Amino acid sequence: MPPSTYAEVIAEAAADERVLVRVDRRADRAVVTLDDPEKRNVLSGPLTLQLQQRLAELTPDPTLKTIVLTGADPGFSTGGDLRMMQMAVDSLTSDGGEGATMMWRWIRRQFGGIVRQIAGADQTMIAAVNGAAAGVGLAFALACDVIIASERAKLVPAFGRIGLIPEVGTSWLLARRLGHQRAFGFYVNGEHVDAATALEWGLVNEVVPHDELLPRAEAWCDRLDALPPYAAPMSKALLRQAGSMSWEQSLATEEFAEPACFTTAPFAEAVSGLLQRGTS
Predict the structure, then answer these.
(1) 259 shares its domain with 139
(2) Residue 42 in contact with residue 100, Cβ under 8 Å?
(3) Around 239, how many Cα atoms within 13 Å sit in the side-chain half-sphere?
(4) Range of the domain at 259
(5) Domains contained in the chain, number
(6) pTM to 2 decimals?
(7) Span 59-112, pLDDT tens digits
(8) Helix (H) or strand (E) holding 213
(9) What is the CA radius of gyration of the chain?
(10) Could you tell me the end-to-end alpha-carbon distance of the chain, in angstroms, rounded to an integer?
(11) Neighbour-count burial of 175, counting CB atoms closer than 10 A to its CB (0-12 exposed, 13-18 middle, 19+ buried)
């Protein structure tokens, strides 16, 4: 009998012994790979739970500066698992079921929990989109701080075609990046936006040949590693908040944060070096 409660869904997902999320950890960086390629890295219960657990292990580590999120070829993630969706529908009429609250818990605690992990991490989160990123998979990519797209990448909203609305933060993110009309059209039409169009629309930072995707992500990691250790996390926190602040609120926040940088050794050394070069 399929699970009909949130606790049963979690227990079933946790019992799956397959490794569906791989982590390659090296010094100050980690590559997290969704690894169920035969199913296009669909966000099944086990894969979603493993991704959440891996991020929970990585993000508290102060020595880790960057986390790259990608999928095993040929895709990034096709989003929510249709089997789980059917199970959720069936649970609405089952005896002893939790009704819509079961779906609410999963969407909030797992899907929403992951985007909160991505947004709240001190690490710079880099999405390396290697193929189709659809539905909630697209939401995970859009939540990242940097998005690098392979020339094979496609961004697919998917929600409207199966009778759902934007979820997991995508309505907020896309409305701010695209404006109301283009974001609305993106959802209603269910457009498959290719990498070049995504770059033109400002949805990704850059597009690279497929074989150069992870090396390019590595180059971003190198660039961030060269910064003072506080620079990227503090900038991320400021910029994340700025989207929902007034100009005056954002200005005041920067005014309070900036003096802390003056107290650091990297800033003192940089200023001294610039002065010495200017007088030499």
Answers:
(1) no
(2) no
(3) 13
(4) 231-279
(5) 2
(6) 0.90
(7) 999 999 999 999 999 999 998 877 777 776 766 666 666 777 888 888 899 999
(8) helix 213-225
(9) 21
(10) 78
(11) middle
